[in-house]
Structures
1.
Amino acid sequence: MSKKWRLNDRTRMLLTLELAIILPAAALMGFSIWNLQHIGRDKAIEAAIQRDFSYVLKIAEKKTWEKAGAMVAAARQEFPPPNDDTLIEHKLERMLKNHPEFVYAILYDKKNNLLVSRIQPTRDADEEFRRHAEEDIGMASKWIPLEATGMCKHLRVMGEMDELPVGYYGGWAVVDKQPTYWSIAYFIPPEIPEDRVTLGVVSFDPEYLRGKLFPAVMADVMAKESNKRAEANPPAMMIHAPKEYSPWVQSTNWDGGKAEMERSLTDIFPGLVLAIKYKGTTVADIGARFLRYNYIILGALSLLMVGGVFLTYRNVSREMNLARLKSDFVANVSHELRTPLALIRLYAETLELGRLTGQEKYHGYFRIIREESERLTALINNILDFSRIEAGRKEYEFKETNLAELVRSTLDSYRFQIEQHGFTYEVNISDNIPPVNVDREAIARSLLNLVNNALKYSKDEKYIGVSLYRANGSIKLEVQDRGMGIPPSEQEKIFEKFYRCGDPLVHNIKGSGLGLSLVRHIVRAHGGEILVESAPDKGSKFTIDLPLDRSLRAGVTPA
Ligand code: ADP
């Protein structure tokens, strides 16, 4: 019956564990894996980084726009009105001096048929610079008068739309067999009446763009981005010509390789393409790494969970075992209490009637009453000891003791009982046992428990052997029987509280499962150990091993 109860309970526990822990956790794991697979398939990480890149590129373009726009706006403010020729040249020159980022400036006015140009005066000494600038101005002087009306119209429309009325042109030209970037800004100078076609033109110095403007923009964006992300690796950027992938300008952390995303700066610097990537890695790598990390973490979590469930299962089943043992114990103990009490009562009543004939019968009855009450006492002592040990209140009184004498007298008071049950009885006490510090009562009780077990668990071959001897620095107290023995699988467990062997024969024998656990506790409190050697149907030998170290040794020991 108890087996069935246990099975049921175990299945119930397994079911509970499964429902309460494993199922939700497994569902969570499954969902996470499904999620990760989705992320992997849709390249969601990659897409998020691309979105981010596209945003950074937009910011970079906006900053370029702002910086270049501010320079052009400042230059425009300093442009002279198209009235007096000589003053115009002078003013243009002063403006250029204030703005070394421009190569030349042109002022065109249709009404006065006027086109004045100046080259950057700070570079006067640079022959080659002058030559290129003059060539450019020569070309500009040809197309400006043709395009000016259309350009002005366009600028006025921009002005009406509240935009800064500035237009940009640019592109690549081959100068001295070198691809060279050029770029101009055009605008209507300040305070020009609506109906007049007047244009101001400034040309950006490509070396200035390359060496100052773009690096400044990149540094700005990177500083902002790396602050925002608090990450060690801000995106790297570079600028190149379309279809030409070597960088024209690059950020300090650009490390070559293919850009992840690009954006043409069509509106302000046509012919330049802004490119972005991460240093030392690719977006695909980052995505793959994200997935890998997550899978690893999931794997580790699953392992932890399995371990946790296993531990819980083990603990709970241990507790359940203990609960079962305890309930068996209560049944056993009640039974053990009831039987001697019933016997005592029966014999006492018979005695009371006084109808017995013969002295011997009286003696026999008294003996039974004494034996049964001794058994009760032993059982109650065991239970009391056990409850003290459980509560941590068991105290031992170590006193100098002659063990040989203790063993002999304990056995003497038991001898009669042993012989009564038809046991052959052999005691070997060697005479070189030194006095030791032990708790007399506890040691005597241990011995009684062992002898009592030998009595209980012997069937046909009725033999009990007790020896006390000294060996290898310890004192050994052995109790040997030729009884039913203990299977190896249970030899460790018999020392656990409440444990009784599974053999059905054992369950017909009275017992509480406390004896050996008490013996072990007592022996360990003395710094020793209890050992068992046993084979089923051959018998058992229990050995109490008390090491003769300084704590046990009392007084002077014989050499
Ligand atoms: P109890 O004897 O009250 O059941 P113990 O703690 O003394 O409790 O013993 C635990 C179990 O060990 C016993 O139930 C029995 O199965 C087994 N056992 C103990 N001593 C012997 C022995 N001498 N021979 C065979 N089995 C034994």
2.
Amino acid sequence: MAKIDWYNEFVDFSYKPAKDDLVCLFYFEPEAGLTKKEAAGRIASESSTGTWTTLYKLPPRMKNLQAIAFDLDGNYLKVAYPRDLWDNGNLPQLLSGIAGNIFGMKAVKNLRLIDVSLPQSYIKHFKGPHHGIQGIRKMMKIHKRPLTGAVPKPKIGFSAAEHADIAFETWMGGFDFTKDDENLTSTKFNKFEERVRLMTKMRDKAEKLTGETKSAFINITGETELMKKRAKLLHSYGWEYAMIDVVVVGTAAVHTMRDYLSDLDMAIHAHRAMHASFDRNPKHGMTMQFLAKIMRLIGVTQIHSGTAVGKLVGSKEEVKAIADTLRKNKVKANKNILLQQDWGNIKSAFPVSSGGLHPGLVPDVMKIYGTELVLLVSGGIHGHPKGTRAGAMATMQAVDATMKGESLKEYAKKHEELRLALEKWGYMKPK
Ligand code: CAP
Ligand code: MG
């Protein structure tokens, strides 16, 4: 009987990836009735040149474009993709290939894209972050400790004037940044233009009083032309950053804005709102380390990476994998979590730890990340018994204690703001 499918031609467990191959690591569960090898063939086929049936005509050269499932270890599968499949510098096309139809195949009960190892011949077509971690540290004149910031809370509802006043208190408490929340862009009670104007006034006042550089992640999320307009306004008021909710705007818009903001010598704070719709299920979807990788490749300055100890999902192992993906130049393979990656000339990006943090959790977060991170503590300063400024001071005291290797308990004996924070929250891990 004539063969009706050719999936097994996409499997070769003796194949050794070529230097220029792009390699993906998947977790997968075959649907009942299919072997792992049969499902593996379907993953490699559907994400490269194949279809469900044998064809009347198949030019021999197509063989050179087929993906090959080459390494099967339990439910983990590696697939090698020929370099010629991929359009230089086109990340949406990459996603349509390795993260497209395959998630909907009946052949798999579950499928998760864990990581991708990109060859130099692919990454050289991307610019990566404009500043890099050292560039940001130089710009902010902060060379050792974590950078710190907070979002006004409640996350939306303040007038532009109230928002700017809270920013002033945050900066005067010693924080470097104030951040808009992910769902605040421009509303009738807090218009973007008004917020920028008033935030600028408060920034200049706080810089004058403290002698420190103060900045903000002001949210320009929206249609790309609108984002350009808002970025230009930020630049005209001397702001160094723009904030973009990168998942909801999409990789093409982030790419456009990376180049537009880079021409203005501006940095991108990437919020990852909506990521958990595809990365929290350990059996299906894509990992946060994969999302962090493509965002560093496109060129965001920093992206939220989790806390492990705060209110939102993300294990310690996952947080470390994301931090390595963002900060390292040469990433080592970590079984079933990361593939090796040489970033070549692509600059580093800051991990951003945020979500349910307060001064009592600062040592836990710094134990995971070290000092090379942006630390955002929002509810954890505005909920302080003595208010925002004292909450920021308490957090800066917790950072200082941790940098000095002192316990918070000891340090709090001589620092009232930290003592009051520990009295309220202790070391609780919010849910
Ligand atoms: C944190 C936050 C951030 C989350 C995002 C919030 O506020 O502003 O958006 O950190 O999660 O809206 O919850 P709190 P992630 O500090 O008051 O919790 O960083 O995991 O992307
Ligand atoms: Mg938020």
